[in-house]
Design a protein that fits this description.
By secondary structure, the protein is mainly alpha-helical. It contains 7 helices and 2 strands; from the N terminus they run ββααααααα. Strands 1-2 form a two-stranded antiparallel sheet. Helix 1 packs parallel to helix 3, helix 4 packs antiparallel against helix 5 and helix 6 packs antiparallel against helix 7. The longest helix has 28 residues. The N and C termini lie far apart (82 Å). The N terminus is likely disordered.
Length: 166
Amino acid sequence: DLVEVRVKKGNRKLTKSVEDAVILDTATELKEEGNMMVKTDPQYSNDCYTKALNLLEKCSSKPPTPLSLSLHLNASLTFLKTNNPSPALSHATTALTLDPSNPKALFRAGLACKSLHKDDDALNYMHRILKADPKHKEARKEAEEMGRKKIEDVKREKAVCEKMFS
């Protein structure tokens, strides 16, 4: 393929395929920059991932799924690290539309639901992971903790009801 580059009034006007290539390269660079800073500055990393995702929306062609998936997973992680569970859940569920059985997406969706006090949803996400991988340690630990909490909540509710009606 020959790439056509037009020059008009001293400005470079690029064809769509070149524009898309620049967008993909820039989004990939932003992702890598975010990855380097995720442990020390998750908010900065989140900004990088968000900028990259916004760039991908400007692509005239469909962006590659692995890049979109990775950016949504990473954004979900950084939103969890910065105690923002609603956008973390949104990015995790978007990642699940790209890869419905992705364990990272399921786990992060579960953690976000847990933070949002959507306990049944959180437990459901953990069970989906364990169904695919019964040895997934983090999911097992979270599911067990959520199960214990649910039992305690039922006991506490029962005690309150007994006290009210006795």
